[in-house]
Amino acid sequence: MSRIKSPAELEAFRKEILAQRDPDKPCITLCSGSACNATGSGKVAAALELEIEKQGVTTEVVSRRTGCHGFCEQGPIVVIYPQGICYLKVQPEDIAEIISETIKKQKIVERLLYVDPNSGERATLEEDIPFYKYQKRLVLGSNRKIDPRSLEDYLAVEGYQAIAKVLFEMTPEQVVGEVKDAKLRGRGGAGFPSGLKWDFARNAPGDQKYVVVNCDEGDPGAYMDRSVMEGNPFAVLEGLMIGAYAIGANEGYIYVRQEYPLAVANLTVAIEKAEEYGLLGKNILGSGFDFTIKVHRGAGAFICGEETSLLNSLEGKAGEPNARPPFPAIRGLWSKPTNINNVETWANIPMIINKGAAFFSAIGTESSKGTKIFSLVGKVNNTGLVEVPMGASLRDIIFKIGGGVPGDKKFKAVQTGGPSGGCLPEDLLDTKVDFDELSQAGAMMGSGGMIVMDEDTCLVDIARYFLAFLSDESCGKCTPCREGIRQMLKILTNMTKGLAKEGDIDLLFELAEATKGSSMCALGKTAPNPVLSTLNHFREEYEAHINEKRCPSLSCKELIAFHIEPEKCKGCGACFRKCPAEAIEGGKKRIHVVVQEKCTKCGGCHEACPAAFDAVKILSGVPVPEATPEEARAIG
Amino acid sequence: MSEISLQIDGKEVAVSAGTTILEAARSLGIEIPTVCDHAQLSPYGACRICTVEADANGRTNLVASCQYPVEKDMVVRTKTEQVDKIRKVLLEQMLSHAPDSEQLVALGQIYGADRDRFEKEASFCILCGLCVRYCAEVKKKDAISFFDRGAKREIAFLPEIAMQECWDCKECFPLCPTSALQAAYVLTEALMTPTEPAAPSCGGGCSSSEGCG
Amino acid sequence: MDIGKIDQIIDKYDGEASSLIQILLDIQSENHWLPKEALTRVGEKLNVPMSRIQHITTFYKHFSLSPKGKHEVHVCVGTACHVRGAERILDTVHEVTGVGAGETDPDLNFSVETVSCLGCCALGPVIVVDGEIHGNVEQAETAAVLTELKQAETTEVMQKCACE
């Protein structure tokens, strides 16, 4: 295929692709995102290829390896179109049956269907699975339909329609106006209005301007951007190109974490394909607009998600922030006006142009429009990527889509916004997903991590965890961030070890105020949030750690002890066999005893003890009862 | 350059665009404490004790006066209860590294900082960066650099360059607010003295330290 | 590392100083660590001061200034993995390999690193052994994977020593 030189040629090519595709022909799609690859998608793909050949259905069926479908815990995922039959946890040995039954005889392979853990009901179609049913997948939707490395697939789902419209029917002002009218807010963290940001860079003096994609998704527990970049890179490229046209830039950069090798690989292929077809480079579609893109891999630094640090890193320097103002829109990459948006923001742009600002702004709440992707993870039944309209409640996301907390455990908190965000308790579960409402509740939209915690999660430990992360990830340039985090982390670590002192909570508040008030960049200014939000909503947990040296969640290792209740122990030896530290004294038909001095508190005995006996107890804040004397340990 | 008028601690002043709040305050004779600021170096914003409160565009923000450019009709307060509290904590944090620094002790007295509030840290360096920046910006030698990040951030001389350039210069020594810099240099010198390479763990030419018995 | 290979990598980026991090990443992935000679060569060719190279190579977590073990173990300690017990997995890795986070054993068999999120949160806790992702790992499974590798190494060493 040669370069596409005009919108007419683009449409002709699209028609040609669609004409070759029979929408009624069975299409087997296999999720090949990072998570499914980890659970064996590669082997399933090989089996699929082999079996299609072997059973002689090469002409009757199409197969496609797609991007991430989002229901990562259930991978590898196979969906058969046009019906949308969804098979989960598919293994290579299941493929022969899928082809012989579902493809040849239109019969469902029952054992591969989704089973609702609460009702026990099976769901045949993707859309019947509660995890998908309550979502609105405007951005992620294409992920399961296209091969991320196929430009033809992207064209088949209206790809590059928006850029053609923009280049030939809209002025740059109109494009900015459309994004403003859509009321799109940046998906990377603070939620700044994207149209306004574009306007700043557009109006900034200077001939040379840049656009940048921020795919340095460093929030631990968030992976929306990875999935979009891996699964639909062309949409990001098209969005970026539209932004470049609107702002007046001819060069773009994509900053991707090197921890995301598949995203880098798929993106690189997409750029090569786009260049080959003339959808990047000189005189795109004959419009006179030139645009090139370079990929820059991050080398492992969370701080590079912050705009000015990212730009320093792009210039080949350490990722330390600059003071703002001047903002990147005025003085960015190589001191030129630069507009940076995150992956999800850019991926929304083609849709806004295709469907119009009115369509987009009709979804969501007064101040937050469109949809938002969350990575719903932690102690929740259905983990994976969830795209919901703004305004959905946390309760609906966690319980309707996520299926609630596994086992008989009680929900305790949900953490949103990553290390800059906060933990919200049960009584705030009706909070809506909305930039402002989440901030008011003491959390943050952030980039979209949503980590569910149950009664076993200690929130003092969670605050300690985030500060340990930030202590390592701070660039260390300014005192309040570097030293403030260091001191807060010391206090929290002491608390989890039972070494806290009276007055520590007040000291935490004081340190938090200085760090928040005087740090240079957003990392420092928001670093105290995990501490403040847990102190705000779970202060009693802090007090228990300080005053009683007790961890109410029975989680902090140094504050707990494992103890076998003599009257409940049946001498089965399950705990004895599991103990890696030889810390259990046992024997046939004898009461087992934990030798406290040897115990490493791994919890193995607690897991091993049969539920019917329930003899192994975790104690905290109380003395461990005296061990049963040797001579009194015989049972029965 | 156009003039921008603003108010600092109740006094009106007009300065050229691009002036920092710190510079504007100094032109009025208002003193804002600083540690990492230096006349010959570009503003760096590391110590943050020059933080002030500024109202601009209808919002009140805490900003580092050494880097923040003046804005039209801005109202700046260089001393408030909150600002003083922040300076006190920052000084206490710096004093945990350099409890005997004359400059820090003097500032600490003004803001009521308790130099024993936090446990003593192993490193004397407060990472103001004066030495690193002076060597790079003024001397253009790059003989000393930052290493690592976060709580592990530190400064160190690059031995190869230091041995050639530093002996006759040492202009960074008096810039250091703590007494640590000279010590760092002495350490570098010591490290440059060649030592015997470590003996291999197994005499038999095997790279393993176990399993050779 | 071969100077010719380093030059090849530098040339791929047209010797641009702004590509410093990209060049170092390529050398790191080729050689698994950054030897002093390589850094000196990069500094000379790109005309970048050594101070900046030293800062960068210690600032970004992916770079290693000392040789890595034959087997690289990455334990994800992202939030999702943390709440599902990543710390205990890290303990197990330490127990089995004798190598703590950020360390390499003297025999260069194992390097253990923590990573802050691999984006496989739904599979947590996650470990990556020699580039292969293992999801939903329990302590026992982690131990099994690593013990197997460790035994293979020990056998190899014993064979090597026996023939010398």
Task: Please provide a written account of the structure.
- The complex is a heterotrimer of chains A (636), B (213) and C (164).
- Chain A contains 25 helices and 19 strands.
- By secondary structure, chain A is of the alpha/beta class.
- In chain A, α7 packs parallel to α11 (233-247), α7 (161-169) crosses α14 (343-355) and α8 crosses α11 (233-247).
- The model of chain A has no long low-confidence stretch (mean pLDDT 95).
- Chain A is 38% helix and 14% strand.
- Chain B has 213 residues and is an alpha+beta fold.
- Chain C is an alpha+beta fold and 164 residues long.
- Chain C has 2 domains: 3-59, no CATH class; 71-163, Glutaredoxin (3-Layer(aba) Sandwich), CATH 3.40.30.10.
- Chain C has helices spanning 3-12, 20-31, 36-46, 50-59, 79-83, 86-97, 139-163; strands spanning 71-76, 103-104, 110-115, 127-129, 132-134.
- The longest helix of chain C has 25 residues, at 139-163.
- Chain C is globular, with a radius of gyration of 18 Å.
- Classes of the chains: A alpha/beta (636), B alpha+beta (213), C alpha+beta (164).
- Chains in contact: A-B, A-C, B-C.
List the defining traits of the structure above.
heterotrimer, A: 636 residues, alpha/beta, Glutaredoxin, Rossmann fold, five-stranded mixed β-sheet, four-stranded mixed β-sheet, 38% helix, C: 164 residues, 2 domains
Task: Assign an overall shape of chain A.
Answer: globular
- What structural class do the secondary elements of chain B suggest? alpha+beta
Mean pLDDT of chain B: 89
What value does the Rg of chain B take, in angstroms? Answer: 23 Å
Task: Report how far apart the termini of chain B are.
Answer: 80 Å
| Low-pLDDT regions of chain A | none
Top CATH class of the largest domain in chain A: Alpha Beta
